[in-house]
Task: inverse folding
C-alpha cells in the first residue's frame, strides 16, 4: 500500500503533497505524519497518540534478520527497506527497543577524528543526522552547539593540531583555539594558569553537538515499521544455525526463524552473538559509566571534553548536566555503577568548573562497550556466508548509527562492501591492517 | 568497589591492580606465523561468566597473578600464583 503510493506519487499520479513529502509514518488507520497542527489538536482534546510502531507475530521466515534493536539495527532495517526495497526484515532485541547502548550513551555527535578513514565515515554520519528529523518526520533534537576537546599538555596540543589538519583536509570545520577564546565559549570554566591542569588550548569543532538518543531510536523504529519491517522486542536470539558455512536461521526464545541473512548489530554482547555463528572476535566488553545532575538553567552551550581529566560534560535541553568518562579498567558485563567512579568524576568536573560544587547528582548508570584493539569498529562480512557484523562500537557507536545503517544495508542488499567501510573489515586483524583511532578518541582511552 | 585477593598481600581494592587480560597459551615467537601471532594478540574469548585472567598488583607487591572471576557478577572464586612465573608474565 505504502510502496504503491510512493510509486504513484513518483509517476506524478499522486497529489502534489505526496510528491513533496516523504511517506515515513504513513499507513492505514494512523495519522500519516506528525505535524504542528496534530500536536495542537491533541493538546486541546487530550487524546492519546497512537503507538509509533506496530506489534507483529514472529514469522517462521524472513529475508533478513537483524539482531539488536538499537540505533544501528533499526537504521540498517530502515535503509534496507527504503533504499533497497527489502522490507521482509525482522529486528530482534532481547529487551526493549533502544534499551542497550543506544539508551546509555551520552549522545554526543562529532566527526573530528584522527584517521582520514574515521573522519570520512563519521562526517557522513553527521550529515545524515543533520537531515534526520526531516527524513524520519520525527524530531530528534539535534543541537549542533559545538564541541571542545581540551588540551592540558604540549603533547595533547600537538595531537589537536594534527587532528585539526586531518579534519580540514576532509572539509570539516575544526580548529585549535586558545584559552581566551575558550573562556568566551564557556565562561564558567577555569581557564586560568593556576588550575591543577591548566588548559593550554582546545580543538573546537562547531558542527559537533548533542542529540536526543531515544528520539533517534524511536524515529528509526517508526520509519522502518512504516516501510513494513517487523520489530520484535523481548525476543532473544539463543542460537544461529549455520550449515556448510552458510547461515540458515536463528533460534529465539519466541520461536525459530529461517533466514539466509543475519546482521549482528548488538553492543556489549556482540562477541557472544558472533560466537553463536562460530565467528571469533577481537572484542573485550568494558562498562562505561555516566551520570546526570539535577536540572539547572542553561549555562553550558558547548560540549566540553577533557582527555587528561577523562571526563566529558554537556547540558541537555532539559537542563541536566550529563557527565561521561572513559571505560572501566577491566572487562565486565555488569552495569552496576561504583562509588569510586562518582568520586573521581566529581573531582574532575570540579577541576574544570568549580562553580558546580553545589549541584546534586540525580543518577548514574553504566553501558557496555565493545572495545577493539585499534579503537575502530568492525563492519562487513565474516567467514560465515550470510552472517554480517556491525560491531565493536566501543565508546563511539551512537554517533555512527545512521551511516552504519546506510552502509550495512548496502552491503546486505548488494553483497558488495561499500568503500566507506572497507577499512573496518574483520580481516584487518589477521592481516595486520589496523585503523588506529586511539589518539582521537575523545577522552584518550 | 570490588576486592581482589592478591596471593601475596591479601584482599585489596581493585583500583590497586592493573588488569592484564585473559590467560592463554602463548605461541612460540621463534616458530609462529604472523597470522597466529596476531590471533594471539587480538582475539579473546570475552565470556559472560567465569574467566581466568592475569592481574598485576601495581601499588602492592608488583607481581602478576592469576584470578578466576565472573564477568557478570564480578565475583572472584580463585586467586593464585602463575604455574611458572616466566610463562605468564608478559
Result:
Amino acid at each position: 500500500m505504502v510502496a504503491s503510493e510512493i510509486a504513484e506519487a513518483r509517476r506524478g499520479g499522486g497529489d502534489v503533497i505526496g510528491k513533496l513529502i516523504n511517506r515515513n509514518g504513513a499507513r492505514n488507520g494512523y495519522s500519516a505524519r506528525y505535524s504542528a497542527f496534530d500536536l495542537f489538536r491533541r493538546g486541546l482534546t487530550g487524546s492519546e497518540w497512537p503507538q509509533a510502531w506496530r506489534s507483529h507475530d514472529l514469522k517462521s521466515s524472513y529475508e533478513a534478520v537483524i539482531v539488536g534493536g538499537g540505533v544501528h539495527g533499526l537504521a540498517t532495517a530502515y535503509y534496507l527497506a527504503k533504499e533497497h526495497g527489502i522490507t521482509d526484515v525482522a529486528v530482534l532485541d532481547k529487551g526493549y527497543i533502544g534499551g542497550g547502548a543506544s539508551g546509555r550513551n551520552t549522545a554526543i555527535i562529532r566527526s573530528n577524528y584522527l584517521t582520514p578513514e574515521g573522519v570520512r565515515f563519521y562526517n557522513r554520519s553527521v550529515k545524515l543526522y543533520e537531515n534526520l528529523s526531516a527524513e524520519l518526520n520525527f524530531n530528534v533534537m539535534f543541537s549542533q552547539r559545538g564541541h571542545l576537546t581540551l588540551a592540558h599538555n604540549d603533547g595533547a596540543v600537538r595531537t589537536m593540531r594534527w587532528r585539526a589538519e586531518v579534519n580540514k583536509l576532509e572539509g570539516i570545520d575544526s580548529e585549535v583555539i586558545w584559552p581566551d577564546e575558550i573562556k568566551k565559549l564557556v565562561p564558567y570554566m577555569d581557564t586560568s594558569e593556576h588550575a591543577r591542569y591548566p588548559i593550554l588550548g582546545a580543538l573546537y569543532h562547531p558542527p559537533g553537538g548533542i542529540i536526543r538518543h531515544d528520539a533517534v531510536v524511536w524515529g528509526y523504529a517508526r520509519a522502518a515499521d512504516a516501510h513494513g519491517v517487523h520489530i520484535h522486542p523481548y525476543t532473544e536470539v539463543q542460537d544461529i544455525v549455520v550449515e556448510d558455512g552458510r547461515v540458515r536461521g536463528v533460534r529465539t526464545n519466541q520461536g525459530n526463524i529461517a533466514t539466509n541473512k543475519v546482521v549482528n548489530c548488538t553492543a556489549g554482547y556482540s562477541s557472544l552473538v558472533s560466537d553463536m555463528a562460530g565467528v571469533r572476535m577481537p572484542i573485550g566488553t568494558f562498562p562505561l559509566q555516566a551520570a546526570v545532575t539535577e536540572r539547572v538553567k542553561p549555562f553550558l552551550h558547548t560540549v566540553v571534553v577533557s582527555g587528561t581529566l577523562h571526563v566529558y560534560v554537556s547540558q541537555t535541553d532539559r537542563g541536566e548536566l550529563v557527565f561521561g568518562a572513559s571505560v572501566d579498567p577491566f572487562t565486565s558485563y555488569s552495569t552496576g555503577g561504583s562509588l569510586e567512579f562518582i568520586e573521581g568524576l566529581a573531582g574532575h568536573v570540579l577541576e574544570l568548573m568549580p562553580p558546580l560544587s553545589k549541584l546534586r547528582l540525580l543518577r548514574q548508570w553504566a553501558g557496555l562497550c565493545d572495545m577493539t584493539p585499534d579503537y575502530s569498529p568492525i563492519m562487513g562480512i565474516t567467514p560465515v556466508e550470510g552472517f554480517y557484523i556491525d560491531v565493536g562500537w566501543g565508546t563511539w557507536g551512537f554517533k555512527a548509527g545512521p551511516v552504519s545503517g546506510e552502509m550495512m544495508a548496502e552491503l546486505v542488499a548488494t553483497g558488495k562492501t561499500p568503500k566507506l567501510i572497507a577499512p573496518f573489515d574483520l580481516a584487518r586483524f589477521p592481516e595486520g591492517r589496523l585503523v588506529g583511532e586511539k589518539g582521537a578518541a575523545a577522552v584518550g582511552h | 568497589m570490588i576486592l581482589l585477593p592478591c596471593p601475596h598481600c591479601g584482599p585489596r581494592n581493585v583500583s590497586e591492580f592493573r588488569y592484564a587480560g585473559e590467560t592463554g597459551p602463548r605461541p612460540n615467537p621463534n616458530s609462529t606465523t604472523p597470522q597466529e601471532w596476531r590471533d594471539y594478540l587480538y582475539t579473546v574469548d570475552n565470556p559472560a561468566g567465569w574467566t581466568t585472567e592475569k592481574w598485576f598488583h601495581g601499588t602492592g607487591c608488583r607481581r602478576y597473578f592469576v584470578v578466576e572471576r565472573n564477568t557478570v557478577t564480578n565475583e572472584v572464586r580463585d586467586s593464585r600464583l602463575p604455574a611458572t612465573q616466566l610463562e605468564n608474565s608478559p
Notes: Residues 6-20, 439-445 of chain A have pLDDT under 50 and may be disordered. The longest strand of chain A covers residues 284-295. Chain A touches chain B at residues 269, 271-272, 280-285, 329-334, 338-340, 373, 429-430, 432 (CB under 8 Å). Residues 154-169 of chain A form the longest helix (16 residues).
